[in-house]
Amino acid sequence: MEDKKDISSDNYANWFALFYLCQNIGSQKALHISSVKFGKILNLSQQTASRRITQLEDMGWIQRKIVGKEQIIRITKKGADIMLVMYKNMKQILEDILIVGEVTEGMGEGGYYVRIKEYYTQFKDKLGFEPFYGTLNLQLTDLNMELLDENLKTRIPIKIEGFEKEEDGYIKRKYGSVKCYECIVSRLDDQSKKTKGAILKIKRTHHKKNIIEILAEPFLRDTLKLKDGVRVRIELVKDDY
């Protein structure tokens, strides 16, 4: 088990160096690199870079073999364990950062698709509530959209299956699948009232960039007293919720 001091702020220079070594090794088993080149990567002098590599070796995070002017560096199990702890810590930080969207006017797409029986029945059965015939549209900043996407990558969505439907008696139209992610929404300026809903990830949509749709049982604009421009907090439901 790693020592807590190994990933403390006092030791940040070493685990930052380890991060860069891992990044450059990638899927290879080892890295052939000189201390001069490693210094350039870290923006350090050759002497400081050489000292950093020696420290990583002394701590047991890497194994090193000198071949001429180069060093063959391998990440040890202890080094890999440190990276795993760093990953878990960063993942938790990202999950705890607030994801905020601004209420914006929709195009009516959500209401149209929710009303389709084949979709509505699945939303009701799989999400556990009878959805309102419409969605709440939120505009996210680039940063918030990236944070949301990174969080969703680690979660298993509730999948609404696509289907074909006859229209006008003879034309078959294909309706795509929809991925749903359970969430809790509330006004950013008032956390007293929270409502369960689901983020809809739709393959084909006419929305502008960084627009997401929230499906819920009540009409969220009334329930949370929302108007265009009001900021809404999105909390992803944990797996054990």
Question: What does the secondary structure layout of this molecule look like, with pairings?
Answer:
Blueprint: H1 12-25, E1 31-33, H2 35-42, H3 46-58, E2 62-67, E3 70-75, H4 77-96, E4 99-103, H5 109-115, H6 117-127, E5 136-139, H7 142-153, E6 158-160, E7 163-167, E8 171-175, E9 178-187, E10 190-202, E11 211-216, H8 220-223, E12 231-236
Antiparallel strand pairs: 1-3, 2-3, 4-5, 4-12, 5-11, 6-9, 7-8, 9-10, 9-12, 10-11
Helix pairs in contact: 1-3, 2-3
Question: Quick gist of this model?
Answer:
The chain is an alpha+beta fold and 241 residues long. The protein is 37% helix and 30% strand. It has 2 domains: 4-90, Orthogonal Bundle (Arc Repressor Mutant, subunit A); 99-236, Elongation Factor Tu (Ef-tu), domain 3.
What structural keywords apply?
six-stranded antiparallel β-barrel; three-stranded antiparallel sheet; alpha+beta; 8 helices; 241 residues; 30% strand; Elongation Factor Tu (Ef-tu), domain 3
Overview of the molecule:
The protein contains eight helices and twelve strands. Strands 4-5-11-10-9-12 form a six-stranded antiparallel barrel. A three-stranded antiparallel sheet has the order 1-3-2. The mean pLDDT is 87. The protein has two domains: 87 residues, Arc Repressor Mutant, subunit A (Orthogonal Bundle); 138 residues, Beta Barrel (Elongation Factor Tu (Ef-tu), domain 3), CATH 2.40.30. The radius of gyration is 25 Å and the shape is elongated. With 241 residues, it is of the alpha+beta class.
